[in-house]
Specification:
268 residues; alpha/beta; Nitrilase/N-carbamoyl-D-aminoacid amidohydrolase; six-stranded mixed sheet; 9 helices
Length: 268
């Protein structure tokens, strides 16, 4: 068995209060470690909060690079609590501009890499630069795929990660209530068609006009929901999965084996 215990956080961010969000995030890391989690994942842009209407250009002021205080604090927490961490945040790009990004930290505090959201949603385009790479990150339990929110609506993104060997894909998100019908569909669909585990991690928001509703999701490689978190409340779900289930399902329903890459042009 290749078991992994996940901690998925429905985080309620204080808009633009980075210090407060980091302090609370570190408490969740400590709690997840006490419960034996191997990996903790937070929602999209949880370090600053998500609201392009309210925050707008201030994301540029609040963005940090991987050498900043926020990443430093979570790297130390990863070492102290022996846990892998995915931190979604406004991330300064070495080539200029900022990304709606995520930093992936190994349990020894090393950086496994960074991800920049590829498919930007609406007004995000006015603030962030899109990424152009979908590739998994090597952690101690195997290859982890990371997407962000709207990325999950593009089957090609998850398929590209699955073709590179990711058996678990996590998707930090900021889904609003009016789009919940898509939230309910994305994760079972991406899991089924790629015979892997797919998680959606959503924020909770009561500030401004944007209503993020939590309701974290996790679907297994058969496309069955094994987690549907509580609505409109901050909290964390901790549960264990067996990554070998992905291999078993792939033998029964070999979508990845039978994919006509010559027809569709996949280059993974």
């Amino acid at each position: 068995m290749a078991t992994v215990k996940l901690a998925l956080v429905q985080f309620e961010s204080a808009l633009m209060d980075v210090a407060a969000n980091v302090r609370k995030g570190l408490k969740f890391v400590e709690q997840a470690s006490r419960e034996g989690a191997d990996l903790i994942v937070f929602p999209e842009l949880f370090v600053t909060g998500y609201d392009t209407d309210v925050i707008g250009g201030r994301y540029h002021e609040l963005a940090e690079d991987t050498g900043g205080l926020t990443v430093g604090a979570f790297r130390e927490a990863a070492r102290t609590h022996n846990i892998n961490i995915v931190i979604p945040m406004a991330l300064k790009r070495s080539e200029g501009g900022i990304a709606n990004g995520a930093v992936i930290i190994r349990r020894n505090g090393e950086l496994a890499g960074t991800y920049s959201k590829v498919h930007l949603w609406e007004d995000e385009r006015k603030v962030f630069k899109p990424g152009d790479v979908c590739a998994p990150y090597e952690l101690d339990f195997g290859k982890l795929g990371v997407l962000i929110c709207y990325d999950a609506g593009f089957p090609e993104a998850a398929r590209t990660l699955a073709l590179q060997g990711a058996k678990l894909i996590v998707t930090p998100s900021a889904f609003s209530l009016e789009d919940k019908h898509r939230w309910d569909i994305y994760y079972p669909a991406r899991a089924l068609e790629n015979t892997c585990f797919v998680a959606g991690i959503n924020g909770v928001s009561r500030e401004g006009g944007l209503r993020l509703f939590g309701n974290n999701k996790l679907a297994n490689p058969r496309g069955e929901l094994i987690l549907s978190g509580i609505l409109n409340e901050e909290g964390m779900q901790v549960l264990e999965i067996d990554l070998d289930e992905a291999d078993e399902c792939s033998k029964l329903t070999p979508y990845l084996r039978d994919l006509r890459m010559d027809t569709y042009g996949y280059q993974a």
